[in-house]
Design goal:
This protein has helices at about 5-15, 40-45, 70, 75-85, 100-110, 135-150, 150-160, 165-170, 170-185, 190-195, 200-215, 225-230, 235, 240-255, 260-270, 275-290, 315-325, 330, 340-345, 355-370, 375-380, 390-405, 410-415, 420-435, 440-450, 455-465; strands spanning about 55, 60. It is mostly helical.
Length: about 475
């Protein structure tokens, strides 16, 4: 059989047929959190795309047009076809604004083929945790628990089940995101109260989820204003750790809202009230970029230049900090988990940012070793002393341990077994996390005294700013 030329094939496969396409359609419920809220997803729904196409991430099961999950067209292809039409598909140029066309193109190119249906929307139902065996069910059930009994109870149950259930342990972060959805409904949209009732379990997924769902229902012209005020709540500002998590979670939410448009999400962060707020927000943006909570694929990563986007020109100096503090999670995927090769990449970082890449490696060491002190020490040793690799890796590892759980005794055990020349830096790093948990000097001292004595305590207090 004669093969079609590629451009013609793409047009033929991607084309809509006019019948049944382009109609308006929507659904509503009195008690629900909006879908991911990305502008592109909303355009996809309201323009009637779901009537023609199958795309699981959008809940679309149309059969008139091609299956977008199978086709996975790139952004330019979608934009061109929506604008011009052809081959049975009407042009949407007069129906959609240029911005809306760009938004739907970004959404389709990012979400098609991810196979993550149901993960980016939440509506309470009767699903119970005890009846679940798969991740999607657990997400819904824990969201329901938060909606009915409050997020505190749901997070406590998640903590317990994570220790015995492999499925829950592997996906506890996105499950915690859904608890954020239920928690926001429980507190009737009050982010401050919802934050106060939460915890940092499972990598602070609950905090990230709260901001994601808060942004979900916002209109495009409301996002910048909402982003600049949502963390300015007395319940949030009273605790430095919670305030950080709010701004960090905001970055996650902005990335999901924009359909993983990294420059646009960073631009929203830059509009926050202080530079420090902006920097914290950028951390959530880069974390979502590298490992999306919902399995989406970012185009702002490279399989060849593994330091991209950190070493690119469009990432401004103020944004480089968190980009480099997270970049090794991406690097490790393409060096077969080799700590030595990861270290080699870190040494290629922009001048002045090498130490932060090694701190990122420490964060990954902590997670890979599941906070096992001996394994963390062994992995960090592979960074070597050149460019202070091992030292900064240890610092990143201890901070990750304490950031995940300030009551984890493995943090103290780790600092006690590292080489003597790194011990002070390790306890100082411990203090930098414990210090964020308390606004007053007495609280910082009590937190450090739980894990350190003598010179170790002095270093911890110094790191805590006590």
């Amino acid at each position: 059989m004669r093969r079609l030329a590629l451009p013609a094939l793409l047009l033929a496969v991607f084309a809509f047929t006019a019948a049944g396409c382009g109609g308006k359609g929507s659904s509503s419920s009195n008690d629900h959190v909006a879908s991911s809220g990305t502008p592109g997803e909303k355009v996809f729904s309201t323009a009637g795309c779901a009537n023609c196409h199958t795309m699981e991430a959008a809940g679309a099961k149309g059969t008139v047009g091609p299956n977008l999950d199978e086709l996975r067209p790139n952004e330019q292809t979608v934009k061109r076809q929506v604008t011009n039409g052809g081959n049975g598909m009407p042009s949407f140029k007069s129906k959609l604004s240029p911005t809306e066309i760009q938004q739907v193109a970004a959404f389709v190119s990012t979400a098609a083929g991810t196979g993550r249906a149901g993960k980016i929307s939440f509506e309470p139902n009767d699903q119970k945790v005890e009846d679940c065996t798969d991740t999607a069910c657990y997400e819904q059930a824990f969201g329901n628990l938060a909606y009915n009994d409050g997020p505190k109870k749901a997070l406590e149950e998640l903590d317990k089940l994570s220790s015995t259930n492999g499925t829950v342990a592997a996906d506890c972060h996105p499950i915690a995101h859904k608890i954020g959805a239920g928690g926001l409904l429980y507190f009737k949209g009050d982010v401050g109260k919802a934050f106060a009732d939460g915890s940092a379990t499972c990598g602070s997924g609950y905090y990230h989820g709260l901001l994601q769902w808060k942004l979900a229902g916002a209109r495009a012209n409301q996002v910048a204003s909402l982003a600049s005020t949502v963390c300015k709540d007395p319940n949030i500002e009273a605790n430095a750790f919670i305030y950080y998590q709010c701004n960090h979670g905001l970055g996650h939410g902005l990335m999901l809202y924009t359909g993983l448009d990294l420059p646009q999400a960073l631009d929203y962060c830059h509009q926050l009230q202080t530079q420090q707020d902006s920097i914290m927000c950028s951390g959530g943006v880069f974390m979502e970029n590298q490992s999306s909570s919902f399995g989406l694929h970012s185009k702002w990563l490279s399989t060849k230049n593994l330091l991209f986007p950190c070493n690119s020109k469009f990432v401004k100096r103020q944004d480089k900090l968190y980009c480099y503090l997270l970049i090794t999670s991406h690097i490790l995927q393409y060096v077969h988990g080799s700590w030595k090769k990861t270290s080699d990449w870190c040494r290629k970082s922009d001048p002045g940012w090498v130490q932060y890449c090694f701190q990122s490696m420490g964060r990954d060491v902590s997670g890979t070793a599941v906070h096992n002190p001996q394994q963390m020490k062994q992995y960090c040793a592979e960074a070597g002393e050149k460019a202070s690799g091992e030292k900064e890796c240890i610092y990143g590892a201890i901070r990750d341990v304490m950031n995940n759980n300030t009551q984890d005794p493995s943090g103290k055990a780790f600092c006690e077994i590292v080489d003597a020349k790194f011990r002070n830096y390790c306890f100082w790093g411990m203090g930098t996390i414990l210090g964020t948990q308390h606004a007053d000097g007495a609280g910082k001292r009590t937190a450090c005294e739980q894990w350190a004595k003598g010179e170790d305590l002095t270093q911890c207090l110094s790191g805590a700013g006590a």
